[in-house]
Amino acid sequence: MTEARDPWAAATAASRDERLRLHRRTVRHGDRRYTVVSLRPSDPWRFGVRIDECTMITSDVAGTRVLGRLLWGLAFQRRPDTVLLIDSPHLVPNPYDGLPSPRLAFVPAPLATVDTSAARRLRRQRPSRRPSEGTLTWNTHSYPDALAARLAWQRRVWTSGHGVEHTWTEPPRGPELRVFGDFVTISGDRGALRQWALDLGGAGLFWHADQSCAEPDFGFAFDVHAIRHFRRQVSIAGRARSEVTGQDDAPTDPRMLSERITRHAEAVAAREPGPWDPLRPMPFG
Fold first, then answer.
1. Strand (E) positions, 62-157?
2. DSSP state of 175
3. Which DSSP category does 208 fall into?
4. How far, in Å, CA of 129 to CA of 157, rounded?
5. What span, in angstroms and rounded, lies between the C-alpha atoms of 44 and 176?
6. N or C: which end of the chain has fewer CB within 10 A?
7. pLDDT digits (tens, 9 = 90+) for 16-55
8. What are the CA-CA distances from residue 100 to residues 47, 130, 183 (Å)?
């Protein structure tokens, strides 16, 4: 198996991409000065966010792995009240029922604290719509080696069965997830952020129904799904929502409406088959 065809090597190589460059803006709230970092408008990654029993974050494999790098860098921030914001133009409607995605802020606790009033200020000011106050380099230089070690252990497990021993570590403290209308905050300490980053770095190794899933928080407060045909799914969901909401008997209950749109999306997808590839088997299953 060559490195180019080896999904484990590909996941490690993805973490060694060129340094991330992010935009920086400042939001003042009372006596606090928040540093809000976000992707640049020219960056190609897109994310869909759905709030249901848990908060579901979706993207393609590249976007999911980049989110892992972003969280790793956030774990090593030293500036108080630094917040990572995922906002337009990097948000798209979620790929299930086409509902617009809420903005998403990751908060490194206890370095940063975003209470209800601060969340409202961030939600209202929309800092990503203002000109950038500067560009910074996101430090993830230790991420490739940490991810390589994690993937190497996973590979040994899958090639050697369940006889591989490993040292048990205490799961990180679960996230504090709060929803403020169309604004979601996910707070975690440094250990949790690093754990989440490593979980997301392995996106694309295992597939089920064209999705590679991670449940990085151990408490099911939020999941991250890499979808193989993410952009097509977003388009299908948007078309399905438009057609269902245009029907005379469209449900008024949001949950029933979502369920009908999700079902109708299958019919929309069937009109134009492809590019559905065969499901990928687990690499060493």
1. 82-86, 103-108, 135-138
2. P
3. B
4. 46
5. 29
6. C
7. 666 789 999 999 998 999 999 999 999 999 999 999 878 8
8. 11, 21, 11
In this structure, the strands spanning 55-59 and 82-86 are unpaired
Q: Give pLDDT tens digits for 67-119.
A: 999 999 999 999 999 999 999 899 999 999 999 999 999 999 999 999 999 99
Backbone angles phi, psi at 93, to 5 degrees: -55, 150
Contact 132, 79 (CB under 8 A): no
Q: To the nearest whole number, what is the mean pLDDT of the chain?
A: 85
Sheet strand arrangement including 103-108:
135-138, 20-29, 32-38, 82-86, 103-108, 183-188, 176-179
pTM for the model: 0.86
What is the distance between the alpha carbons of residues 59 and 227, in angstroms, rounded to a whole number?
A: 6
Helix (H, G, I), strand (E, B) or coil at 74: helix
Between CA 284 and CA 25 the distance in angstroms is 45
Strand 55-59 to 135-138 pairing: unpaired
Residue-wise pLDDT tens digits, 251-281: 999 999 999 999 999 899 888 776 554 444 4
Other beta carbons less than 10 A from residue 95's beta carbon: 26
- Taking each helix axis from N to C end, the angle separating 143-160 and 190-201, rounded to the nearest 10 degrees, works out to 60
How far is Cα 232 from Cα 265, in angstroms, rounded to an integer?
11
Which residues are within 8 A (CB) of 72 and not within 5 positions of it... i.e. 6 or more apart? 140, 142, 143, 146, 193, 194, 197, 198
